[in-house]
What does this fold into?
Amino acid sequence: MISENDARAKILEAVRPLPPRKVSILRPSSGQALQALDHFAAEDYFARLPLPNFDNSAMDGYAVLASDCKPSKRLRVTGEQPAGVDRRLRVSNGEAIRIFTGGPMPQGADAIVMQEDVTRDGDAIVVNVDVDVEEFVRKRGCDLGEGQKILSAGERIRATTLALLASQGLAEVLVDGEVRAAIVSTGDELAKPGEELQPGQIYDSNSVLLQSLLKRCSAVVTSAENCSDDANSLRKTIQRAAKNEILIVSGGVSVGEHDLVQSTLRDLGAKIDIWRVAIKPGKPFLFGQLEKCFVFGLPGNPVSAFVTFLQFVRPAILKMKGATDLDLPKMPAKLTVDLTNESERAHYVRGKFENGTFAPVGRQESHALFGLSQSNALLRIETGESLKAGETVDVQLF
Ligand code: AMP
Ligand code: MG
It folds into this structure.
């Protein structure tokens, strides 16, 4: 049995970033989703346009000279400047130009009076307020300077990142390579959701769990198969599934007579790098390589599969995708109960992070899917560690 840290280090050492590809930031004509969303930038991006790109009005109002304005001052309206076109107008003393939000600042003008602060009188306005220089003017480059870094390699592309790239006129972005993943759920007891359950059977919940977790990591699930605990079928299924960058096998990695995953992998010539990690739940976790495919054997118990996915598979995929941050987001939380880890393995307690507190939820056993489904955070307790209620701990959010 190796430590969790050693296992993680070994896995991260084995996997390498995949070659990047250019993808559209626009909605592809055929598809539903933004292609670049939730992928990782494969290079640094710098502003090629400042934001704003030209001085413009922040309000519907009048472009004026601030020094020319005081309450009761009358100004002649000499033109109109809408957004979307630069009419190259000019403002002199005693004049104002009708302007709309986003309209380019006329020459000579150094401020905007909003329309609520004037009284319109035919082709003139009467200013009702004092006006400061640059009031309601969005100056070129005040938000973002030309050449400023807008996106770093390894950073996740979010909705707002896409908006920023679009504001630069970019239609494509270079992102991480695609991680194709196959899932194999093993177990004679498994029935597919939607099928009729026979006595002794259970529904396969890991397959959908893993598909969802993979989707969250922006990996592409190419297949999700079920396989009975039969060496021949397992051999064929694994061979088929190993044509992807990664293969996740659920169940069959423990020590029982029906746990055939490890022996089948070895028969196929796989190199097993890790089997059994000091983590609770998740001890029988397996990691190896079958030709070019990285194989993760996750214990069949749903909570074990979940925890080992987050601690080992997720960082591996993120590394393959060139991500900088491989960890789950962490938050400090006030513990609501005393907790001690008397086991010889690091314990991941499932619970709810809410209003700055963390409370364990449900049964802390590896089969207890309901409690897991009500949780949103993991608390890692080191072997031998005792935590007291009221203490502040870091929890991992999922
Ligand atoms: P195993 O790792 O194959 O020894 O399975 C451990 C436990 O997890 C057993 O109780 C299995 O029935 C259960 N299990 C295995 N695979 C799944 C699955 N795909 N979905 C839900 N439970 C499973
Ligand atoms: Mg099994």
Q: What stands out?
A: Residues 7 and 274 are 7 Å apart (CA to CA).
